[in-house]
């Protein structure tokens, strides 16, 4: 099954932001954990993760459950190597399909370093330590943080980057990626989008993330969290 998207993203139709779906706190946490597992790299454990998600999402609202079940059916039927290649070709090689949330607002500019520090401070403020190889704005990590944390900070962190998440969904729709449904489920779980956020979303879809020729040095010596901070738990394992 050919899942590799075309090399260039062209948005012929501008999708409207996703309407919010009423959820209980437990349903929102389950949605965020399920989408975190599905958006992470499809390594050797991916098939097991899809089976676990399929068994767990039966209690979600119908609209959310349906889009996740559609993705799961596609993922389970696909050749594992093809699906892995499609993941890399989608999320690693396209600016508008980035899984790092601060990239949409800060792009490749000096501002992104401070944005990443803000993410790490948010984990700590909620009593968690970030300890992973990924950067702290990695969407699957932030979704897991929201799923396991009782602090409202996690949901606020996602809501603050809603326009970037909507841009990601629009870009995935443009290349007919099955992952668009997973991002749609995330968007359904977030608060209703306001006019200001909608305007930023439309601008980002048209213009893309900011760019600046600074190499990679704007990250300085920034590393993911290690143990020894406010709490022994890890927001990312």
From TrEMBL:
Membrane-spanning parts: none
Alphabetized NCBIfam families for the sequence: narJ
Keyword Endoplasmic reticulum: no
GO molecular function: metallochaperone activity; unfolded protein binding
Alphabetized UniProt keyword annotations: Nitrate assimilation
GO annotation (BP), single: chaperone-mediated protein complex assembly
Protein's organism: Sanguibacter gelidistatuariae
Protein name listed in UniProt: Respiratory nitrate reductase chaperone NarJ
Keyword hit for Transmembrane helix: no
